[in-house]
Write a structure and sequence with these properties.
185 residues, mainly alpha
């Protein structure tokens, strides 16, 4: 049995929650999946948020313990020692900007960002769990709004414009943002 057969057996709400709880996919994958499975965008948003936030307390609790285990391994131990040295060097700035930066890290819906990486960053920076949980939750809500807007926009524009026009629109907006960034410098 492969993964698509497994997801065919599950109700769409459960499939969306499972994908939302997985580390790389999170909201970026679960929200569009819900719409593709026939859920309304709002239903997909609700189930994605529930699934994405479900592992938060467990991750915030377990991540420091996982880091302690990884510190004992030669390769990861060296990387974490280097990160600890950086953290000590910039401790004042990290304490001042750590929570807003954590929110921004989680809010950007790109691969490598999200709830899982936010929990890892909170553990590395030794941020208080309750404050980190709040910052991560706000970041998840912002990411959900962004992914929801892109998903709903895609659902509305796709039948009208077609795949190629939608892809061209995404490329044009991305290129415009990149050019705007370089013009400032």
């Amino acid at each position: 049995m492969n993964i698509d057969q497994l997801f065919e057996l599950l109700p769409p709400q459960l499939a969306v929650m499972i994908v939302a709880a997985l580390p790389v996919f999170e909201l970026r994958g679960s929200l569009p999946l819900g719409v593709l499975c026939g859920l309304s965008p709002l239903q997909s948003l609700l189930w994605s948020l529930i699934g994405n936030l479900l592992p938060l307390p467990l991750l915030l609790y377990l991540m420091p313990h996982l880091l302690q285990l990884l510190r004992r391994l030669p390769f990861t131990g060296r990387i974490l020692a280097w990160l600890d040295a950086r953290e000590r060097r910039y401790r004042a700035d990290l304490r001042r900007y750590g929570l807003p930066a954590l929110t921004i890290l989680v809010a950007i819906p790109l691969p490598g960002t999200g709830l899982w990486s936010g929990c890892l960053a909170a553990a590395l920076l030794q941020l208080p769990r309750r404050k980190a949980a709040l910052a991560i939750t706000v970041g998840v809500l912002i990411a959900a709004a962004i992914v929801f807007a892109v998903t709903v926009g895609g659902v509305i524009l796709l039948p009208v414009l077609g795949w190629w026009a939608l892809l061209l629109l995404v490329v044009a907006v991305t290129a415009g943002l990149i050019l705007k960034k370089y013009r400032r410098k």
